[in-house]
């Protein structure tokens, strides 16, 4: 196949060799002009319609070589080399083709030039096209092979993880069960010996550390003025999720009880953290185990905002020196797997924390927002770290990507591969916009017909 090159010489050849109405055929749609490994003794010019040339791989799949449209030659190689055709050539629509054959008169343009010499520009163009197309096909095959190898790696990772998942899950189950038992026992002891403090313990146990840094700062400022407290006492109360109305009921006893309120609430919140961590660890093991497997149970009605809060709870140590601002909108519940959602947010948040920490970002800040747009839940995770270098930005969702640039680690890699796999399973989309001082991940999750 060779594309028509509009010049005087080629037009001259077309006028001479492809203008005879007796040497014209009509090829109906889906009919073959010729099949692979067939002898061909004609050179064709497409006058109307469209043809497709393709080959068959050993596995039965097709590989496309060309699409021929009007004023493109077909059969150049097999005609001039007298070899068998290399492709199957079929009409994509009703087509009209002019042709010449070996027995047709050769027009000698003022000399003894052979047919091959007269069509030399067409032949060269054909060879160039074939070389280019072979390079493209080679690149496509290499890309496909890399994907296959990566897929096999991920499947192997799943198989390896399966070997240790059983033991880990047993250990996690023991931790979770014993933590629940511990919470019940402590609650009973407090109820028997310090009943006035039981509500603070239970508040911490039920609600956990659900306040953002900005909310804590605002509560600290208000409590300091409202209850006339020192900075230390105001901060201790602000850390808890005990309501202002409950604190107001204590009146003059508040200052005296602040250490106890804080301690009992902290004990409850710590047990809550342990339960959340044990629950999430089960999903972490399962997610790595199933990295190469396309199956996950998703039958829960979940609140996306709550899964973000649980992820923040798990990452308290990472967030200790980072200012976190949350801007949540009311969201409809969605059918999903809570553990998967927690893992998505955990990886994104941890990446941001590690990036800012490794770059020694001054006044590190993390902002998380959620909202509803066009029947999609949209969550953004933004940090003011060093940004993702351009040379790895397009590769961050691929496993085993080198993420250390000039001594800085950007906290990327396998975690984002898992994030991508999870979100793909929900038909969700993740994008990243990054520059120094502002990296923004945006996740859009369709709520679906059964959600909201």
Q: What is the helix/strand order?
A: EHEEEEEHEHHHHHHHEHHEEHEEHEEHEE
CATH topology-level fold name of the largest domain: Heat Shock Protein 90
For the report, how would you describe the main beta sheet? 7 strands, antiparallel
Rounded to the nearest angstrom, the radius of gyration is: 35 Å
Q: What is the H level of CATH, i.e. the homologous superfamily of the largest domain?
A: Histidine kinase-like ATPase, C-terminal domain
Contiguous uncertain segments of 5+ residues: 2-6, 291-295, 407-411
The top-level CATH class of the largest domain is: Alpha Beta
The helix-and-strand class reads: alpha+beta
- Overall body shape: elongated
Q: In total, how many domains does the architecture comprise?
A: 3
> Helical amount among residues, as a percent range?
40-55%
State the distance separating the first and last CA atoms: 55 Å
Mean pLDDT: 82
Count of alpha/pi helices: 14
Query: What's the architecture of the largest domain in CATH terms?
Result: 2-Layer Sandwich
Strand content: 15-25%
Counted beta strands: 16
């Amino acid at each position: 196949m060779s594309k028509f090159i509009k010049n005087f010489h080629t037009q001259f050849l077309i006028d001479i060799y492809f203008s005879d109405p007796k040497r014209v055929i009509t090829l109906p749609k889906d009919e073959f002009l010729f099949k692979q490994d067939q002898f061909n003794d004609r050179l064709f010019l497409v006058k109307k319609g469209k043809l497709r040339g393709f080959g068959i791989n050993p596995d039965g799949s097709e590989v496309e070589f060309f699409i021929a449209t009007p004023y493109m030659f077909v059969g150049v190689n097999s005609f001039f080399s007298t070899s068998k055709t290399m492709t199957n050539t079929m009409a994509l629509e009703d087509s009209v083709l002019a042709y010449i054959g070996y027995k047709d008169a050769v027009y000698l343009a003022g000399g003894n030039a052979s047919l091959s010499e007269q069509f030399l520009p067409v032949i060269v163009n054909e060879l160039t096209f074939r070389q280019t197309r072979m390079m493209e096909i080679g690149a496509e095959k290499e890309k496909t092979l890399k994907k296959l190898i990566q897929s096999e790696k991920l499947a192997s990772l799943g198989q390896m993880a399966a070997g240790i998942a059983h033991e880990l899950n047993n250990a996690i189950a023991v931790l979770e069960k014993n933590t629940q038992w511990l919470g019940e026992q402590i609650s009973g002891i407090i109820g028997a010996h310090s009943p006035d403090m039981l509500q603070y313990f239970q508040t911490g146990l039920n609600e956990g550390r659900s306040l953002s840094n900005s909310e804590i700062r605002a509560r600290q400022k208000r409590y300091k003025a409202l209850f006339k407290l020192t900075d230390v006492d105001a901060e201790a109360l602000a850390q808890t999720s005990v309501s202002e109305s409950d604190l107001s009921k204590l009146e003059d006893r508040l200052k005296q009880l602040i250490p106890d309120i804080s301690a009992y609430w902290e004990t409850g919140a710590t047990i809550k953290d342990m339960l959340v961590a044990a629950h999430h660890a089960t999903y972490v093991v399962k997610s790595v185990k199933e990295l190469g497997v396309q199956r996950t149970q998703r039958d829960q009605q979940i609140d996306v905002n709550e899964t973000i809060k649980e992820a923040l709870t798990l990452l308290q140590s990472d967030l200790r020196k980072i200012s976190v601002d949350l801007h949540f909108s009311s969201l409809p519940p969605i059918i999903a797997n809570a553990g998967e959602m927690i893992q998505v947010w955990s990886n994104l948040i941890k990446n941001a924390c590690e990036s800012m920490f490794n770059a020694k970002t001054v006044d590190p800040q993390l902002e998380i927002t959620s909202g509803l747009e066009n029947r999609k839940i949209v969550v953004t995770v933004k940090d003011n770290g060093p940004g993702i270098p351009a040379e790895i930005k397009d590769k961050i969702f691929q496993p085993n990507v080198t993420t250390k640039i000039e001594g800085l680690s950007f906290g990327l890699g396998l975690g984002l591969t898992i994030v991508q796999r999870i979100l793909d399973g929900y038909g969700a989309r993740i994008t990243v916009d990054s520059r120094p001082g502002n990296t923004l991940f945006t996740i859009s999750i369709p709520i679906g017909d059964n959600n909201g």
